[in-house]
Every structure is written in structure tokens, then in C-alpha cells.
Known about the structure:
Shape: elongated
Number of strands: 16
Structural class: alpha/beta
CATH topology of the largest domain: Methane Monooxygenase Hydroxylase, Chain G, domain 1
Number of helices: 23
Number of domains: 5
Strand order of the largest sheet: 6-8-9-10-7-11
Bound molecules: adenosine-5'-diphosphate, magnesium ion, zinc ion
Radius of gyration: 41 Å
CATH class of the largest domain: Mainly Alpha
Largest sheet: 6 strands, mixed
Oligomer: single chain
Helix content: 40-55%
Distance between the termini: 64 Å
Mean pLDDT: 83
Amino acid sequence: MSNLSKNIIWAVITLIVISLIFSFFFTPAPSAKTLSLSQLASDINAGQVKQIKVNGSELDITMTDGSAAVSQKEDGADITSTLKNLGVNDQALQNMDLQVVNQSGAQYWASLLLPPLLELLLVGVLFWLMFRQARSGVNQAFNFGRSNLKVSSFKDRVMFKDVAGLKEAKEELIEVVDFLKTPKKFLDLGARIPRGILLMGPPGTGKTLVARAIAGESNVPFFFISASEFVEMFVGVGASRTRDAFLTAKRAAPAILFIDEIDAVGRQRGAGMGGGNDEREQTLNQILVEMDGFDRDTRVIVLAATNRPDVLDPALLRPGRFDRRIILDLPDMKDREAILRIHAEGKTIGKDVDFRRVAQRTPGFSGADLANLMNEAAIAAARHGQKMIGQADLLEAAEKVIMGPERRSRVISQHEKEITAYHEGGHALVAASLKDADPVQKVSIISRGFAGGYTMKLPNEDVHLKTRAQFLADLAMMMGGYASEKLTFGDISTGASNDLKEASDLARKLVTKYGMSELGPMTFGKTEEMMFLGREISSEKNYSEKVASEIDEEVKKFLMHAYDVAEKVLKSHKAALKKVADTLMEKEVLEQDDFNAVLRPFKIKPITA
Length: 609
Ligand code: ADP
Ligand code: MG
Ligand code: ZN
């Protein structure tokens, strides 16, 4: 594509040059004035013309006062008879110098031939450009069988210090590089050098990054290809590319061959899903063949990365192929802090920035999300004309990533503002009054994304397990907005609908997934989830209608209980609710410390839900 546009630019330049040449040859000297033939005739009679040079049909005239003029006669007509016909007398004609320039000279031919020649040249150039384009296309077609192997370059070298966390992954990979460098040590003991290592984990957790870091650290040749490049337009290309890639790597042994996003070719064969792509299957088969073809002492290690290990063909995971698997998890709080620090390098960071606090506010963020957050904060700081990135920029960027940008401009009436303040105040107060609820980090009644306001509550530490008591507290807190509206205004707005949906979903999970209801230690329904992507693909109902209605009953119990708890809390702390709501209406946003300060005088004793 860029080739084509380059050619077009060349064609345009050629055209401009040619038209310049044209205008150079064919524009008369601008100083000469143009005379009509009859004007010329009367000038000659008046004795004002000194000389006429006839050049084809052009007349170059020099006046007696030295000025120049031009005129034109009919093609082929005789100049003297033309002038005589216009009434020039013989006397006047003899008094002036009449020259006929030899037209058979080079100039004559040039003026005759140059225009068609230039046109021909132009057409020729265009043809040449087109041919070149077409030929490079053909060459590309012949090159399709070659893989686009990229040998890692040292220009933007990534080292382990650029990778935060991922300790196990790094250690494992170092060990493998050790295998490559001193195989004897391992072979003597009868150990087999691992052939394939599969990095798996959610998107953005640094799989590609850690692979690049291995390239940077290990000093063995590192070949990099994305599996989607194997599969292109032409059938059979994928397999030959695979062959080529492995051949290149083997020639350079000891070496690492990295196949990124291997699920693009490594999907289960013959499943019939996705149209049963033959091309992909052939490529996958070729990868399997190549890996089996390694001798015991072939010093090539194949590294691959994927975020969909669940769809990979089992043959890929067999011993002797990708039998080593390294899982890269979403970063925990400590690692999130470290990742933020890595991406803060080269940026000017304000003194008030507390990376720990930002890490605390960003559970579930991947490394890529955090890198993006840092960048968003820098952009915001620049937009506000600041010299440094401040804590507020970072927190704002985090919330923007989670909930969408603030919509301060959305006009809401005083009454809607009041409803929102009591709604969010209700959430926050219930959360603050329950022992098992996470601490409230922030309450806001500024609309953001689709939410009219929001209450942010997050644990101070990362949690990996959640208890029933914590879920009950969560449910009660979700009901806090609804209960507060009902209690304060005797009416309910649509603002609570999302809370109700989430509470219902959660309550259903408690019953069907976690065995936390009175139906006992059992799960109901079969759901298939996409590993690492957290999306449910399908769920299957494997229980009777009777059980279904029992489940509904339990779900309802959870929700009613949650509502009762919320109502009880709000009823017993009416003054506190009013204070929180009033402060919210005034300030719109309460950070954790402000919120705690508002509640302090009320001395609320936390209860269990
Ligand atoms: P994937 O797992 O999808 O291949 P990448 O390796 O492409 O993810 O990560 C995307 C970006 O996220 C990296 O370029 C890097 O900037 C950032 N990132 C991810 N994980 C980390 C980490 N552990 N340390 C530092 N940066 C990270
Ligand atoms: Mg990647
Ligand atoms: Zn709500």
C-alpha cells in the first residue's frame, strides 16, 4: 500500500516537472507586447518598426524605439503579401529589416517534436511505474512461503528489570536458557531438554514482554513470529512457513523460537467450529511434525504464548511438545505497584504520588492496563498544563478506565441531585456500618459513564477468597441505595436498577455456584467459561423444575435479607445518612478520609449482616 502511494507521488512529481518544461519552452518573453497584424501594418507605415524576424508563424518585432513586440501571421502565408494586403506601402517595407529565420533548424524540429515526445515519455513513465508495482506483487507472491521471522534486535531491548513480578515465569525461563547453554550437564544425567514452553495467562499480563526479556537476557538467537502470520491468503503457505521458521531456528541453534498467540493456529482440530479451517490444521500439523523431528540434542526451544489454553489442541500439550506450562497471573497489589513504578520511569512524577494507593485502587488491572493508566494520567496532566503527574491524575485515570469518563457537564436538577446523594449515601453508610464490608474508598455523585454516581469500596489487601459473611455484607451494601431512596422519599427511582441486577446475579451465584444457601453443598447448572477471559460461553440447566423454583426461593431470601439489613442500618443512623447526603450535595465527591471524618461524630458501631 505504501509502495503504491509512493509511486503516485512520483507520478505527480514527474507531471509537475514535465509541465514546467513545457511552460519554459512555450511561453513568450513576458516583456514583449502583442500586436495585431493591422496594428503592425499601421506601425510599419508610420515608420515605427525597425525589424521583423519571421519564425514560422511567429513574428518577433523590434520597434525603432528599441522595444520588442510579437505578432502572428497565418500559417504558410507569405509575410510580404500579407502586409501589402493590409495596406503597407512598398516604401515603408523597404525601410525596415525583414528576416526570415531558418525554420529547418533544431529549434523548429524541437518545437514540432517536443510536445508529442514528452507525452510519450509521460506515458512511458506511468507504464514503468505500473509494471514495477505489478512485478513486486509477483515477487511477494513467490515469497509467501517464507516465514516472517524476526530476529530480535537490540534496539528496544527488554531486560528482566523491565518486567515487574512474574517471578516464577522468569525463574523457569532462566532455567531453560541454562539448558540451552550447557546441555551436557543435563544430558549426562539422562535428562531431556524441554522442547516447548507454553506461557499462558489473561491478555496484557506480560507474556510477550517476558519472552522478549528472555531474548534480551539470554544472549542466544531469538526468533519471533506471531502465529497469525502463518496463516494468510494462500493455502499451504502456513505449513511451509512453519517449516521455514523451524529450519532457520535449527540452523542458528542454540536458539529460541517464539510463537506468539499460538491459539491462532493451535485450536483443536476437527471440532468443526469456525468452519474447520484446513489451512490452520495443516499449519498445526506441521508444527507438531517439526517438534517431533527434534533430535535429542537439538538445541532449539520453542516458546509459545496464548490466552486461550482451553482451546488448544491436546496434541500440542503432549509430553515432548509444549509440556512445560507457565501461568502468568494478573498482578497482585505489590506487583501492580512495581509495574506502575516501571512505567513511571521517564515521566515526571509529583511528590504527592502514592503508588501503593493507586495499586490498591486497581484490582484486576493487567500490566497492560496499568501501562495504559500511567499514560492516561500523563495525558491528563499535560492537558491541565501541569509540570508533573499528580496523585489525582492517577486516581482519575484509574476510575476512567473502570467506569468511563466523568460527565460533569450533564445537567441534573436539584431534586435528582438529592436523590443521587441519598442513594450513594445509603450505599456508603451501609458499607461503613457492616463489619465484613470492604472500606469505602470514595463516594461521588458526579455522573460517570452510565452511572449517576458511585460508591467505591475496595479491600485494603488483595483478596483471593471471599466468605459467605462478606458476600452478605456486599449484598446489603448493594441494597443500600434502594433502601435509602425508599426510606427518605417514600419512592424509588430507576437509579437503583443496576444495583438490583447485580445483587440478583450475585445472590444466584451464592446458591448455584458457591453452595452458600440452605440448599446445601451443591452446584446447579453447568457453565463453560473461557479460561482467562472470564466470559461464560454457555450454561446448561441440569436440574428439575422443582429445584429451579427452590433456587429462586433461596435467591429471594438472600435479597430480602440484604434489604432488611440495609433498612435496619439506615433507620438507626438517620442523622448520619442526612449528614453524608448533605455533604455530598455540597462537595459532590468524598474521598475516603473525608467520608470517615463525616461519620466520626456519629460513632457507628459495625454490625454483621
Ligand atoms: P500479553 O500477555 O497479552 O502478551 P504483553 O506482554 O503484550 O501482554 O504486555 C503488554 C504491555 O503491558 C507490555 O508492553 C508492558 O508495557 C505492560 N506490562 C504487562 N505486564 C507487565 C509487567 N509484569 N511489568 C511491566 N510491564 C508490563
Ligand atoms: Mg502478547
Ligand atoms: Zn446504587
